[in-house]
UniProtKB/TrEMBL annotation:
Protein name, UniProt field: BH3-interacting domain death agonist
Keyword set, alphabetical order: Apoptosis, Cytoplasm, Membrane, Mitochondrion, Mitochondrion outer membrane
This protein's encoding gene: Bid
Domain of life: Eukaryota
Location of the protein in the cell: Cytoplasm; Mitochondrion outer membrane
Database matches in Gene3D superfamilies: Blc2-like
InterPro entries, sorted: Bcl-2-like_sf (IPR036834), BID (IPR010479)
GO BP: apoptotic mitochondrial changes; positive regulation of extrinsic apoptotic signaling pathway; positive regulation of intrinsic apoptotic signaling pathway; positive regulation of release of cytochrome c from mitochondria
Any one GO cellular component localisation term in the record: cytosol
Amino acid sequence: DDELQTDGNRSGHFQNGELGLAATNEDVIRIIAAQLAEIGDQFDKEIQGRVVNDLVRHFLNENLSNEEITLHMSRVVREIIQSIPSDMEQEKAMLVLAMVLTRRIANTVPSLLRRVFNTTVNFMNQQLHNYIVEMVSA
């Protein structure tokens, strides 16, 4: 459940069940995933190590609730989006950036994978759910 896929493979579903991949075209999903991965590679070069380290510190702080960490991640994503020149939709940039940050944090501290994954899924459900549904159904 709640898999985070970046390679275009058929994957999980949203928590509220609105998105059912059985009704979608797998080729379309693969194309979207490939495009997002390419954008992610570009963004990855722009993210400074201090940003990742700051997020790691927040994830390691067990006194912070999941909601507080999700809010912090949202702030960081929005700050980075403003600093990276891009002509793409803000929602797409936020989606890719959230996935790139998740990967970078998990690569930095693998033990945080579950917490950072859950936070990213929450962030995507709260901030980008409608955009993702529209993107897949378009």
